[in-house]
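note to self — DONT lose this again. spent like an hour looking for the file last time. sequence + predicted structure for the chain T wanted, 492 res
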Amino acid sequence: MAKAETREQTTHGIVSLPTMPRTMLAGLILAAGKGTRMRGERAKVLHEVAGASMIELVSQAVRQAGVEKPIVVVGHDAETVVATLQDGTHQFVEQREQLGTGHAAMMAVDLLKGHDGPVLVTPGDTPLLSGETLAELVKTFTDEGAQAAVASFVTFEPGSYGRVVRDEEGHVSGIVEAKDATAEELEIKEVNAAVYCFDCATLLRHLPNLQKGNAQGEYYLTDVIAAIRGEGGKVVATCFDDPDEFMGVNDRWQLAEASRIMRLRVLRRHALNGVTIVDPSSTYIGAGVQIGPDTLVHPMTVIDGDTRIGSGCTIGPNAWVKDSAIGDGCQVFMSHVDQAEMADGARCGPFSNLRPGTRLGARVKIGNFVEIKNGQIGEDAAVSHLTYIGDASVGARTNVGAGTITCNYDGFAKHRTEIGADTFIGSNSTIVAPRTIGDGAMVAAGSVVTEDVPDDAMAVGRARQVTKEQWVASWRQRRQTETLKKNETSAD
């Protein structure tokens, strides 16, 4: 057996951790496998379901069940898994050689020593698990005074799941893995969900005695169940109604199926909280998104990451919002909003692109084909058409005309533009940063601004117009005459 190594992520990598203190409920998440059927290099538990990695979702469920600091058994791509959970609420132990679920639990023995309560054990690749289900399993364990509780469900296609074997009185006598089961045992429809609650002292006593004389040559955690029954201990199984909760993800198609189920859960939660989802089949909302009541989400919309949307908003159709904060009464119409903020009543679209660092004040209007990057737009301002605002601030009630560009990059560095309040920027203006345009100022249409503009001043940065009366008529006559002569020469 490979020696366990306790690990914690710091700025310098891995350091030793002390054994865990006594708590009411300990938790153990088995997340060491690579997942060869995923056909990639990333650790299986790092693949995302509805915007969050599987390991994060499982950890969240375990903590919701009452575990304060779960122990995570890591293996493949351990550094990245540890970094994903580096919030100070986890402990880590490494399983350098993966020899089964029992072997994974062995790695955590040193961290579990001294704990005299129950320990919840879950796989790291079951992203649909809920804290309520885990809490119910723990309650059954406690109420029944058992040494072990097993989560199970009934399926008419048990396939490779381990079978829950019961005696004549209906008590759990053991769990048999499908590869080791007899033909009679394979007919059992109640299967093991691979989620357990053990009395910690009992678990620690039996783990060293596990053997790997089975079809897979691995240490089975399920053999602890048989050992407990063999010494007269009590094992109970709680059969849950929703098999989806225990769906393990082993390949990319199962990942897609889990994501579909999770998305529907998320959509249902928002709908029951007062959000109108026009078309659930084409709407994608991440698990961590918050949306206020009376908000309307149109089809073909993606809302992901750490996004907060207020009440009474209209999002979509064809909108993409990520890691952004949107106030009440806002509208995002056929636009991208990434790491941006929109205050109450602001609106953007169609075809707006709000990039990271963008902050829109109350009632701001951002129109079609407008891109804003690291720009702050004051309340009641308008940037309505075909404009780029980069590394700039625009004051309240200012109007920026169509085709305006803030030239923020000189080929070596970025520079800011400061535009005051109640200012008018004419169409097709080019502002060469760094520039300051004062309050109440005006920039004439078509200007190239290369100097600062004081308050209440007007800037004209274009060539003076020259009008030549009747020039076009004379030019047209001359061209027609030349063309006629050319045609006559060609005919000769």
